[in-house]
Amino acid sequence: MRTLITTSYKAAAEIIARNHVAAFPTETVYGLGANAFDSDAVKKIYAAKGRPSDNPLIVHVGSVDQIPSVVSSISRHAEKLIAEFFPGPLTLVLPKNKRISSLVTSGLSTVGVRIPKHTIAQKFLNACGVPVAAPSANLSGSPSPTTWQAVKSDLNGRIPCILKGDPSRVGVESTVVDCTGSSPVILRAGGVTLEQLREVIPSTRLQKQQSKVPKSPGVKYRHYSPFAYVFIVSGVGETVPMKRSAYIGLRSVRKNSFGMKKICRNEEEYARSLFHFFRECDAHDMETIYCEQVSEDGIGLALMDRIRKASMQ
Ligand code: TXA
Ligand code: MG
Asked: pLDDT tens-digit profile of 147-178?
């Protein structure tokens, strides 16, 4: 199939309205969208990504007034989080509206809903006229795409359309928060931090690690992984600099013997750069990627989660 690569959000929305898939930019990572009301459209997402269908998808809308078309009720906690963080890098898990295809939720009675804080994404979503189910627009298992070129490299010829935008500003996925219980539970760390959530709802907590049946099924799969081996190090002393080893972190590395390296000014830049760096390393045939460990507060929590998953090949 020929892939249209366009800056026209109207053209991309037209493709969604015809129950085909289209990739689109958001501030976290690029998504691969389809009409969330239509099971046949949603099937095309799983087929293009090669994704197991027991991993539910997030549903995206362009504005708050469309949330009731996705969920069947909004808890008090969810109302507060919507008021504070929507639009933004946050996904709320709530009881699902009947119209949402059960393929989107892989049979769960809940659904994840999010409004991206991204001008093109909002225009595109509003033009679609239906809620848009979308996972990250990468082949299953590979790092999430933070540029349209990364989407193209994974999905060219497999999807009919890529809506072009700038590189993603946040660079890691949204925070997924379960709002169906008595206090909010973070199922996946992401762009909105635990500290920010606790400022609004102090009882917000992290899900205890890996119960036997993960509540966020996506968590059990190998994820975010480059082909290179990823090692977590606390400094350059723990590395073996070579032509085919790469380094990413905050502290500068004096020796220039790494094949590739990226020194970031702060954790935000580290998060924004990580997936892109992984892809660049693969493109340049790196064997090993050393990632400097950072403390797990602020965006550091999501960053270390992604690095840890990438290191568990
Ligand atoms: O930033 C993001 O969240 C990006 C952009 C495109 O919005 N999307 C994304 O989607 O990362 P995906 O499919 O790669 O990850 C969705 C995560 C998975 O961990 C999935 O298990 C969880 O959200 N999830 C979705 N619906 C859920 C539900 N009803 N209950 C629990 N977890 C859910
Ligand atoms: Mg993903």
From this structure: 999 999 999 999 999 999 999 999 999 999 99
267-283 and 300-311 are packed helices; what angle lies between their axes, rounded to 10 degrees?
Answer: 20
Which amino acid, residue 273? S
Residues in contact with 98: Cβ distance below 8 Å, sequence separation at least 6, in sequence order: 72
Looking only at the bridges linking them, the beta strands covering 132-134 and 31-35 are: antiparallel
Question: Which residue's C-alpha comes closest to atom 20 of ligand 1?
Answer: 218
CATH code of 4-206, in short, is 3.90.870.10
- Which residue, 194, 184, 221, is CA-closest to 76? 184
- Expressed in angstroms and rounded, the spacing between residue 145 Cα and the centre of ligand 2 is 9
Coil/strand/helix, residue 149 = helix
Do 4-206 and 229-311 agree at the fold level? Answer: no
pLDDT number for residue 139: 94
Best probe residue, ligand 1, of 72, 173, 222 (max atoms within 8 Å of C-beta) = 173
pTM over cut 0.85: yes
Q: Which of 27, 57, 274, 305 to mutate to test the pocket of ligand 1 (most atoms within 8 A of CB)?
A: 57
Instruction: Give domain limits for the chain.
Output: 4-206, 229-311
Written as six digits, the tokens of 305 are 């989660």
Cα of 32 to ligand 2 centre, how many Å?
10
Q: To test the ligand 1 pocket, which listed residue (46, 70, 91) has its Cβ within 8 A of the most ligand atoms?
A: 91
Q: Which of 10, 276, 286, 26 is nearest to 149 (CA)?
A: 276
Distance 141 CA to ligand 1 centre (A): 14
Q: Which fold has domain 229-311?
A: Rossmann fold (3.40.50)
Amino acid identity for residue 105 in this structure: T
